[in-house]
Design a protein that fits this description.
It is built from 17 helices and four strands. By secondary structure, the chain is mainly alpha-helical. The radius of gyration is 25 Å and the shape is globular. The two termini are 30 Å apart.
Length: 516
């Protein structure tokens, strides 16, 4: 009965999301206050119903209700309670339910704390938020129902992937989703501003806290995921630049740029169009990341699923959300004028340079991540873009950014003087060079003492044929590992995959449940 209650709550939430997507939007256009006022209660009701569904699924996992297919496939009666609870989002269907729960949470928070918002902006923002929610609630109900019953329940479940039975699963995905999905608030505010045709300091003051919250939680989620991967799999950073790692990193880069730009809009009434575009791109990249994780088009150890039907559904959502918002931007952005004239050498100029480096760096990661897919579609050739490409193309942008950051932070608004700023930074520059020299010298000594790895630890990038990390010499059987097999790779030779992953139908090893 609990599963049916959760399923029914999702159906009601879907219906309310559809109403919230239409009624307040029409009310704002017609200036009907009663219709606009519906947005707040609808957002609260939607969150309550999705939370009820999530609680029902959690109860099924906690009580080991193996009549629910998702529980039978991803849990076991002997599992510790921590892994029973975290197993709720350690799979495709449960993680999507967490996705829409976080989305509805942000909508409810805006409805609760946005009482001082202009009624029209608030109604339009919550309507856009509901459009996203209705799309993904429909995706869950029609393709990924987490409450499907089994006609003949097993005595015990199949258990969760052993690699996911770790405290990292309890904390990494929720934090990642709070950032990943939290960027939807900036997107909804941006689209609402485009519909309204106005961006001002008041708009920026409302957007900035939500962008900051999303950025902080996304940063925590990425850091937790990196640490988890390191101690669980012993990659030592080897899987940095994995497609799903990049899927969460790209929104973080754009959100970093957006966070700086919102300040310019608030303080100087400038960069309005650019700020709106960044808000659209940040959440668009989150949606693209969701597509990467769940479509199976790109091979990754973090992939959730490879169902073409699900991938096509998400692709349709991408087309409508990203294409529609960019079309609206192209139509309305020329009508919004920015004020705040400033000199090139100023804090505004430094922030523009900061944004340039961050967006170009994001473009490098985006091209490197999706280029194998584009090339395979165009020519049928399968390649893998490896770490050396990203390191060589991405690192220069970050070095320049690190150089510009302290200078820009010292410059005043509107007009600055480098001659007055630079002497204040000489001491910091000297200290930085000394620390870099000490780190470099220490690293060289460790490599000399330990051979191929730092401190005597074998380089984790050198992987034997069994998939375990190790030196390039003989393996445990006394034989040297054979050359790795697989598709050609740009910059890194071949693609190696650690052992211990679940093997799917096409022979790829995958760790389900680590992605976004």
């Amino acid at each position: 009965m609990t599963a049916e209650l959760g399923h029914f709550a999702l159906i009601l939430a879907f219906a309310i999301a559809l109403a919230q997507a239409v009624v307040p939007l029409v009310g704002a256009q017609r200036r009907w206050s009663d219709w606009m006022a519906l947005a707040g209660p609808a957002a609260g009701a939607q969150f309550f119903l999705i939370a009820l569904a999530f609680a029902a699924l959690t109860r099924a996992f906690v009580t080991s209700d193996f009549s629910v297919a998702l529980v039978a496939q991803n849990s076991n009666s002997l599992k510790p309670m921590l892994y029973k609870v975290s197993g709720v989002w350690g799979n495709h269907e449960g993680s999507m339910l967490l996705w829409v729960l976080v989305l509805s949470l942000f909508g409810a928070l805006v409805a609760l704390f946005g009482r001082e918002l202009a009624p029209g902006l608030k109604a339009r923002m919550l309507a856009v938020q509901a459009m996203i929610g209705s799309a993904f609630l429909g995706f869950i109900l029609f393709t990924s129902n987490p409450f499907t019953r089994l006609p003949r329940p097993p005595v015990d479940g199949a258990d969760l992937n052993p690699l996911l039975q770790d405290p990292g699963l309890a904390f990494h995905p929720p934090f990642l989703y709070l950032g990943y999905v939290g960027l939807s608030t900036a997107f909804s505010f941006a689209v609402a501003a485009l519909i309204e045709g106005r961006v001002d300091a008041a708009w920026a003051r409302w957007v900035r806290p939500w962008v900051l919250l999303a950025w902080i939680t996304l940063t925590i989620g990425i850091a937790l995921g990196s640490y988890w991967a390191y101690y669980e799999l012993g990659w030592g950073g080897w899987w940095f630049w994995d497609p799903v790692e990049n899927a969460s990193f790209m929104p973080w880069l754009i959100a970093s740029a957006l966070l700086h730009c919102v300040v310019v809009v608030e303080k100087r009434d400038g960069l309005k169009n650019w700020t709106i575009l960044l808000a659209i791109l940040a959440f668009s990249l989150s949606l693209i990341g969701t597509f990467i994780v769940r479509s199976g088009l790109l091979t990754s150890v973090h992939s959730f699923a490879s169902d073409p039907t699900r991938g096509l559904f998400i692709l349709l959502i991408l087309f409508v959300a990203i294409g529609g918002s960019l079309a609206l931007y192209a139509w309305r952005a020329p009508q919004m004028r920015s004020g705040g004239v400033f000199a090139p050498v100023s804090r505004e100029g430094a922030l523009i340079l900061n944004n340039l480096f961050l967006t170009v760096a994001c473009g490098v990661v985006f091209i490197g991540t999706l280029w194998p897919l584009v090339l395979e579609m165009a020519t049928g050739e399968k390649i893998s873009v490896g770490a050396p490409f990203f390191d060589k193309a991405f690192t220069p942008m970050m070095v320049l950014l690190i150089v510009v950051l302290p200078v820009g932070a010292m410059l005043p608004w509107k007009r600055g003087d480098l001659g007055r700023v630079m002497p204040k930074l000489y001491a910091a520059l000297g200290l930085s060079l000394a620390v870099m020299g000490a780190v470099f010298a220490g690293g060289k000594r460790a490599v000399g003492a330990g051979g191929d790895g730092v401190g005597g630890v074998a380089d984790p990038r050198r992987v034997d044929r069994s998939g375990g990390a190790g030196a390039a010499g003989p393996n445990s059987s006394g034989r040297k590992p054979a050359p790795p097999q697989g598709p050609a790779a740009i910059g890194m030779g071949q693609v190696h995959r650690p052992c211990g992953f679940r093997v799917d139908g096409d022979g790829h090893r995958r760790c389900f449940g680590l992605g976004g």
